[in-house]
Please model this.
Amino acid sequence: MSASGSGRTGWASVTPALLWTLVFFAVPFAAMAVASLFPQGRQGPSLANYTQFFANPSYWRALVNSLEVTVIVTVISILLAYPFAWILAFMVPERWQRLALMLAVLPFWTSYVVRSYSWLLVLAEKGALNSALVHLGLLSDPIQIANTRAATVIGFVHFFVMLLTLTIYANLKQLSPSYRKAAADLGASPLQAFIHVVLPLTLPGIMVGAFLTFVLAIGDYITPQILGGNNELLMPQLIMMQIGRRGDFAGASALSIILMAVVSIAYLLCARWLKIERA
Amino acid sequence: MMARIVSTLYAAAIYAFIFLPVAVLVLFSFQGTLFPIPPFNGPSLRWYGAVLNDARLTDGLLNSVLVAVTSSALATLLGFLSAWGFARYYLPASAVLRGFITLPLTVSYLIIGMGLLIFFNWIGMPKSLTAAGIGHVVINLPLCFAIIYSQMGDHQANIERAARDLGAREWQVLTLVTAPMLWPALFASFFLSMTFSWDEFVISFLLTRFDTTLPVEIWNLLRAGLNPKTNAVGSLVFGVSILLAIVFELVAFRKRPR
Amino acid sequence: MTALVSVDSISQSFGQVQVLDAVSLAIQPGSYTVLLGPSGSGKTTLLSILGGFLQPTQGRVLIKGEDCTAMAPARRPTATVFQDYALFPHMSVGSNVAFGLRMRGVAKRERLGKAQDMLRIVGLDQAFDKKPHQLSGGQRQRVALARALVVQPAVLLLDEPLGALDLKLRRQMQDELKAIQKRIGTAFVHVTHDQEEAMALADHIVVMNHGRIEDEGPAERVYARPATRFAATFMGESTIVPGRVEADGQVRTALGLFPASGQVPGTEVHVAIRPEHVRVGPAIPATVKDVVYQGSFKRVTATPTAAPDIQLLARLPAGEPVQEGAEISLRVDPGEIIFLKD
Model:
């Protein structure tokens, strides 16, 4: 970075982006915060939207559902993705690794909405999965998967296994092969080498992926709406419902702020893993 | 060896899981009958025909491209200018301001969309493609900034100094020297923004009304239940995306001057 | 005495490329062996095979009489000091050193105690609780050494361990390595491309080139009487001149006559002349082509008048008034010429 030239050119250069972020991000956010304090159908500011959230069990339930689903999705995705990333990083010949990764990412070039719809096709009562299982004689009647939490989890896991595979793969690749060699040389079995050396060294990468999964999943509207149905509501669905059915922007704002708070708390808990670590 | 067999089976299972929905999608886009579920009667192109004849879908497609291209171009431009400004000049509170620009990355699209909905409502700006486009710039600007900023190095600063030394004015330095040098980063930013904008649902859903983008139109289709038309448009989008990815590969990996 | 490690006709190919060609070697207990050669000579490959990180295409490795060729590194009685040290960044120095003992099931207190003892031997007893990134390059190297030694391997393998250090530190570490090896008594096998390092450390130098052993033996012998042309030119500089052995037990070269005891009369030979054996004297008139000042001596290249196609290398005292283009007269110590076998 050079400290040359007149500062004015510098300011002129950065101002457009700063202004845009201010006007179209910061101000709307503030507007939302303010709106949340003016509940629909009341005069003047109040914390009613927030107190109502904590008082009303169906609202509160949505947050709990969101947290449960997100945690389940994160754990399952990591457990599935880590071995897959390992296989891609260490067992696939180097020449084919990029292709293998691209192949794994390819299905995600479909539109997100379309992808969730596709899972609906698979999981619906007359859909591909049930038809196949009935046809093979493994089931006598189709089972209900669509419009349940299981479907939402499957839809999420499908995406996040791919995302975590990529991040964990990158992590494993940049691990110097000398570490595993040194562990082996000193008498560690492959399992011991994994537990004592590889896992601790890749843990920060996993935590970053897990945090990303958490943030993206908890704020997602499409997957739970298409796959989970309306039997169980997650936070994003609750928020959209305030806007759609009731036109209650204030209520929706309050819920959004609460969601943001939850994400911030998660960030603080993970903060020490999210710092860039020294090699 | 045992490990090899287990690994191969595991990898195959994961790949099968990853491809399952897309395979079903594409297969039943060629469905001959009315429902995209087994049994498969076909192949037939009737649903592709239906898509291409559906004005709302084709309009949605064009709108998506329009919004994606303009918002990505704007995000890349703003990202480039700000990255350059921060990299080349000493500005007070630089770290804070840079953090501010990247802040939207940490916020869910739903919340960004909501904020804009309320804000636009407040200032009386109607729902439109423009509104959605503005939202897309908000989500993509941090990304463009981060990518381009990370590519700004000292050796480029020296080349710019040489250009100034030879008489170029600032805007000429930017357009004739800096931008071409940073071509890969600019291209990556633009392309990535296009990808996110093209596929983006929530912000478009909240901020558009009559003219809307393709993901929202597809969503509207979904309201009508399982329909092979959705399969067809989804497969089309998929096909186009793959094509674009191939184009990206060829362009990005041929032009790199390393 | 029976060799501690026997390398028995080891060959290694990678696809079409032959990296090692029927190499056989014996490593004696308590010795310091250096594998010396340029890059591509196969020395690192041989070390990898000894350590068990590579399976040779052909041949066997016997350690303490046991065929270890197919044995994994974990089970082999060897320990390796890697070129990049490979210290586990998430563990303290003490835990790093104790790692091998932990893998062997040694109880916590005992292994940490042993780790501390070994750290004391390498001069780092204050570093136990530090993390690797807090140490300097030389310190990390010593931790890597301690970590490998604490498991009491039959033979310690070192892969260009001093490559990343600056000259002064390298010399210091060479002294320390030698001292530690003598103190602990483990056989060391050390790979390097630096012939000065090899000569400083080795009891037994093995000069390698293109996957074969060119020469091996004590440093003094390999330097003074190299077996092959390659060994002669790799281990220090020399001027190589052709000559003909005459009936009277002398060899005639373009630079004059020299004693040739033990050589067969009538044969064509090549002799190598070390620069330190070329002095100012009345025998060979020459023109100075190049002078490089090296602090304690001057490296002089001269073209003999009688043999202008020879570049004669001489190491002259630093104070000798030599100038480029000047006429000079040199002589070669007659007893010090080296007859090359090839």
Q: What stands out?
A: Chain C touches chain A through 27 residues (CB under 8 Å). The mean pLDDT of chain C is 91. The helical segments of chain C are 43-51, 93-103, 108-121, 137-149, 167-184, 195-201, 219-224, 229-234. Residues 141 and 279 of chain C are 41 Å apart (CA to CA).
